[in-house]
Amino acid sequence: MGIIEFITKLFKRKEYEALPEVNKKPPIYDDLKELGQEIEKQTNLNGLIKDFGQIPELKTQFSGEQIIKIATSFFESLGIKENINVDTTIKHGDIRYLFQAIRQVTQRLSKIETNDQYIKVAPKCMEKILEKYLKNLSDTELKEFNLNRKNLQEDILLIHIIEAIKLKDNLKGPNDINMKSIIGKLYSTKFEEICNRDKLNQKGRFRLLLQTISAIKAGQKNILETDKNNLIHLKSLGDGVIQDTKNNINQYRLNKKLIEITRKIEIGQDFKENIFGHTIFINLAQGLPFILTIPDNIDNNSTLIMESNNLASSNNQELFKQGLEISRSLLEVSNDRNPILVPILSNVENEPYWQQLSLDCIENDSQIPHRILETIEKSKKIIKDEKGIEVNNKIFLNGYSSSGVFAQRLALIYPEIIDTACIGGASGSIPIPDSRLDYPLGIKNYEELFQKPFDMDAYKNINFEYYVGSLESYVKSNRNGTIAPMHDMSYFAISVPTEIGKQQRELFGDEMFERAKKTVETLKEQGVKINHKILYNCIHNDSEAEKYNKENPGIPIVTGVKEERDKIIKTALRAMKERQKNKEKEEKNIPN
Q: What pLDDT is attached to residue 16?
């Protein structure tokens, strides 16, 4: 459903005669009560408060001057230059007072009648636009506003949870007084859902809000009817709130657990935790640090999914936080059926690029690949000891950007252990079994480095799924002006030695997409099973998408690859599962 169609249905004109009789309780109130019960059942908000005690206080404190400065800057970013007039006598304190100021200005500018049931929809939708604005503030802007990014993000998260609790309480007894707040919360959540679905940037969100305001003012709307369309719509609104609340609660629980985990990490001993109903093992004492997540409903004959971290940091707290986020993301795309392994590799300045298994890594520590292999075997043993399940011999190897480079190189070193390699954002450095190129792009020095011959048959058995945004090489040069397309590792000596990268480009082309195409064609000629998908109108990540859209106004909205990436991973997992089923049938001599 498109935006205009949604808005039309959302605020469809109703005849005055459809209003309920005076003093007669609208039937929709009973449906709203049921919605409140469903929200509590699905999100367990009461359990959240019971688990963690009282919701902590909001950390960021705003002075009156700060509120006026931020609010003015925010509205100006939307193109509103006049009549902002933030109330100079507004109360100040935590982030709720900033939101209050934004709501007041929005309500005044919208000119919606105060007795309209939808009076709070536009101000609440504007809050959603403000949240994105705050999350995207640069370090310079944060310093100018005297804000702390971490505290700000935590406060926004807590605001969502506090509002969900308030909505749940209001839905216990819907009435004429709280109805406007209920409608505002329900529709603003749907507004955010549409913005995310249609990948709207800041100005696109504002245009949608203006359409919404126009629709509200166009005529009489009446949600207090119980016709079939409104009931279906109410369910859609409720589902949106439930999913949004679940996401915020999960992030809140994760943040709380991270504090506990960080304390234990500092001790340096192995331990296990339970997060989101899954058992998580943290390995620290011996070998390579790693996170192993075992879902409670793990399938028999499941496959271990592995993705390394790719954060440019040596800070353990940051590395393990990203590792847990990787685990959660992979659990979602695999429907909580497969164990997830995340080896933790730091990125230390003036040390080899461990996160990409660069040539320097192998030359400095020839055992690093073996320690990664030990991590996989140790994880399989933990799964068997904990669940009594033996996972498949081969793994599903996933990676994006630096972890994608890690995946393509691990596949070169240990092709015999990998069923599928799903790799994104690393198309400039696809390895090829070519004796003209040294590792990490070829196999000329392979035996010398790894003390074994390259197993071409095993490599041809891997199912490679490559993908990259069509604007991956948008940034053409580095800060010094030297030609070095961002995310094309062929040009970065820390990942690919200069001479090897130069030789690769001479053989397959200077431009990344041209080189990737020729490399993939050559691999297919060698019998390697490889697909390479280019994602139209996508760039490396969301932050680069924001920058691109600012530099190129008026063109179709550009986005990061996350949504498409999840689809590709899901498809690759389904294909792997289907191959495994067919193999089982063949082994049992059962015809397809």
A: 37
Cite the DSSP H helix spans in 268-276: none
Measured from the Cβ of residue 216, the count of other Cβ atoms closer than 10 Å reads 22
The strand pairing partners of 559, in sequence order, are 538
* Cross-strand pairs, 93: 62
CB 221 within 8 A of CB 187: no
Percentage of the chain with pLDDT > 90? 41
State which residues form the domain around 34: 3-252
Counted domains in the chain: 1
Distances in Å between the alpha carbon of 68 and those of 110, 133, 227, 253, 373? 19, 15, 44, 33, 56
Does the reported pTM lie above 0.70?
yes
C-alpha–C-alpha distance, residues 450 and 388, integer Å: 34
pLDDT band at 542 (very low <50, low <70, confident <90, very high): confident
287 assigned to some structural domain:
no
pLDDT digit string (tens) for 485-508? Answer: 678 888 888 899 999 999 999 999
Q: What angle do CA 553, 211, 122 make, to 5 degrees?
A: 105
Domain membership of residue 335 (yes or no) is no
Alpha-carbon Rg of the chain, whole angstroms? 27
pLDDT digits (tens, 9 = 90+) for 520-529: 999 999 999 9
Query: 21 in a domain, yes or no?
Result: yes
Instruction: Work out the number of other CB atoms within 10 angstroms of the CB of residue 233.
Output: 18
DSSP states of 331-377 as a string? Answer: HHHTTT-S-EEEE-----TTS--GGGT-HHHHHH-TTHHHHHHHHHH
Parallel/antiparallel/unpaired status of strands 271-275 and 305-306: unpaired
**Position of tokens 């399940």?**
389
Q: 270: which 2 tokens?
A: 């192995």
Domain-located, residue 172: yes
pLDDT at 360: 92
Reported as a single tens digit per residue, the pLDDT across 294-304 is 998 888 889 99
Lateral strand order in the sheet of 463-469: 271-275, 278-283, 290-295, 340-343, 305-306, 395-400, 418-424, 463-469, 529-535
Model pLDDT, residue 213: 86
Place of tokens 């450095």: 429
